[in-house]
C-alpha cells in the first residue's frame, strides 16, 4: 500500500479548496492509498522563515527546527504528494509558499548528488478563479506551471510531476461547485492511472 501526502493550503475549512481536497482524499483512499492529510492552516503551520530554518550553504546537514523536521518526515514517508490550493495573484498563497520555503530546504529537498525526493510523484492542484481562456490569454497558466513543476518539483528531483487547474471557481455556489468537483475527479482519475514510482534514495 502506498502513502499519499495530501497538502491543503486554505484558511477556511468550508472553502471550495477544502471540499476539493476532501474529494481528493476520498478518491485516493478508494484507489488504495493511505492518506496523510496535512492541512497547513488547521495544524497551525507558520509560513514565516526563521533563523533556525534558514539554509546554511556551508552545511547541508544542518538540523532545522523540530516543526520543519516533522514535516520533512511526512514528505519522506509519502510515495505521492498532492497539493491543493487557491491561486491568489496568479501564484500560491503565502501559507503554501512559506511551507516550501521552510520545509523543502537545502540538504533535504535539494543540494545532494542523489535527489532524496527522486522517485516520488507529485500533483499540484490549483483552483483558479478565472476561466481557462483568461489564463491562457496572458500565459499565466504556463508561468505558474513552470514555477511549480520546474522551479520546485523537478529542482528537487521529482520528475513525475504535474500541475492541473480547476478553472472558474468564482463565484463559489453549489451549482458551480458540483461541476468543479467533477473536474477534480477527472484530474485525479488521470493521475491515478499511472503506477506509483519507487522511492528515491539519498546520499550521505
UniProtKB/TrEMBL annotation:
Flavodoxin-like fold domain segment(s): 4-182
Keyword Lipid metabolism: no
The keyword Oxidoreductase is assigned to this record: yes
Top-level taxon of origin: Bacteria
Keywords tagged on the record: Oxidoreductase
InterPro entries listed in its UniProt record: Flavodoxin_fold, Flavoprotein-like_sf, NAD(P)H_dehydrogenase_qn
Family: Belongs to the NAD(P)H dehydrogenase (quinone) family.
Protein name, UniProt field: Flavodoxin-like fold domain-containing protein
